[in-house]
Design goal:
Blueprint lengths: L36 E2 L2 E2 H5 L1 E4 H6 L21 H19 L3 E5 H4 L6 H22 L2 E6 L18 H20 L4 E4 L5 E2 L7 H21 L5 E4 L9 E2 L4 H11 L5 E6 H6 L4 H10 L3 E6 L17 H14 L7 E3 L10 H28 L2 H8 L6 H7 L5 H11 L9 H11 L1
Length: about 450
């Protein structure tokens, strides 16, 4: 059901239908068929697609070389609360026209920050009341909330890692208010992306103190939210750099280590973003696998980078082959733990038609849907699984099985190796695996 406010913002665009791959209608899904069963779940359940408030409704395309180019009709009202309500109307119109069920926000995406903390808190309360009504009318849910503790100049030296306690406390107050908002809106997760939690120069940085303080801060946030009845998952979103030269949540492995060091491993998982993975010189699927191995594959921020310049360009996903490799990891891991797929992606600065926002999200959803279908076929119809099993077959019987059962010591390896002589050369068959993926594409 499409939910409009007083005005219709995306005129001429209705509910986006699924029309299949032979359709020529640009405003139709070619592969994302929400109710279609894949590997025992509907596509809707696999993905839980979410719209990111910041890119889709707030980002007007400004870059270091020029101002925004997008004339968003919901960003014009002079009255702050009315402007925020207009934006919420546009959000829910867009989400319901897309047939998505979720959205994600930073606190000050919803409504502009006020002059004081108290004024900001009042504004957040007001818009949360309005969002509650929109959620109830549409059935749209909050995948996760977060707080923007990186844009305001007060956070230039970090938030929880700031060398000045007053700033740390201010970030704590902001996170409390954002947690209250997330809980009031039945948010399913709460994200911490350490925007400026890192350093520009180690010369002026007490890294140990900063990281210990982040640990204290995250424990406080978790304890507070649990005391208020929050049942969802906390998510850390790794990113290696940008805006800082070095960020503490560098990648999945580093973040898992921190989560364990802080003692919050029962409450926290990871939100893996494609372009953050590639900035860390990993593939997206590598980061998913690292998270899955630790039981921490919580959620995904979907986008893509640019092979030539390497920045966090936050483009919409469109590479089916790469996404298929990611969907293989996802299927083998049994899916996301409580999260979904949030399009943390923006249309290009020169994509200025309102329609472009739809085209971008349709393309992103279709990329994931098509990749999931290919991954399912590869798993079920090809020799893929048996080929992987075959590579590790030596651990399923004899001394290999004893090794896996922790029954051997180093002397046992020595004696076995001595009796065996030189191991056989066994091909890794990478090209065969790659050909199988291509075959099912
Ligand atoms: C920044 C980024 C953020 C987080 C939420 O690169 O991805 O939008 O997802 O703060
Ligand atoms: Co993100």
């Amino acid at each position: 059901m499409i939910i409009l406010g007083d005005k219709e913002y995306f005129k001429g665009i209705g509910a986006i239908p699924y029309e299949g791959k032979d359709s020529d209608n640009p405003l139709a899904y070619k592969f994302y068929n929400a109710d279609q069963l894949v590997a025992g779940k509907t596509m809707r359940e696999h993905f839980k697609f979410a719209m990111a408030y910041w890119h889709t409704l707030c980002g007007t395309g400004g870059d270091p070389f020029g101002p925004g180019t997008k004339n968003f009709p919901w960003a014009v009202a002079g009255d702050t609360l009315q402007a925020a309500k207009d934006k919420a109307d546009a959000a829910f119109e867009f989400i319901t026209k897309m047939g998505f069920e979720y959205y994600c926000f930073h606190d000050y995406d919803l409504i502009d920050e006020g002059d004081t903390l108290a004024a900001s808190e009042k504004r957040i309360h007001q818009i949360v009341e309005y969002l509650k009504e929109k959620q109830a009318a549409s059935g749209v849910k909050l995948l996760w909330g977060t707080s923007n503790c990186f844009s305001h100049p007060r956070y230039m030296n970090g938030a929880a890692s700031n060398p000045n306690f007053d700033v740390v406390a201010r970030a704590g107050a902001q996170v409390k208010i954002a947690l209250d908002a997330t809980i009031a809106l039945d948010g399913e997760n709460y994200v911490f992306w350490g925007g400026r939690e890192g350093y520009m120069s180690l010369l002026n940085t007490n890294m140990k103190m900063e990281q210990d303080n982040i640990g204290r801060f995250l424990n406080m946030a978790k304890d507070y939210a649990r005391s208020q009845g929050f049942k969802g998952t906390f998510l850390i979103e790794p990113k290696p750099m940008e805006p800082m030269k070095h960020q503490y949540d560098f990648d999945a492995a580093t973040s898992i280590n921190s989560i364990k060091a802080y003692g919050i491993e029962n409450d926290f998982k990871l939100n893996i973003e494609v372009n953050h993975a590639t900035l860390a010189q990993h593939t997206f699927q590598h980061e998913l696998q690292v998270a899955a191995n630790a039981g921490m594959l919580g959620s995904i921020d979907a986008n893509r980078g640019d092979y030539q310049n390497g920045w966090d360009t936050d483009q919409f996903p469109n590479n089916v082959l790469e996404t298929t490799e990611a969907m293989l990891v996802l299927l083998k891991a049994g899916g996301l733990q409580g999260g979904g797929i949030n399009f943390d992606a923006k249309t290009r600065r020169n994509s200025t038609d309102m329609e472009d926002i739809f085209l971008a999200h349709i393309g992103g959803a279709d990329t994931f849907a098509r990749a999931l279908l290919v991954a399912e076929a590869v798993m079920n119809m090809s020799a893929y699984n048996s080929l992987v099993d075959k590579r590790y077959a030596s651990f399923t019987s004899g001394k290999g099985a004893d090794f896996v059962a922790n029954k051997l010591d180093l002397n046992d390896l020595y004696n076995y190796a001595k009796s065996k002589g030189e191991p056989d050369q066994i091909s890794g068959k990478q090209e065969l695996f790659e050909n199988i993926l291509n075959q099912y594409l």
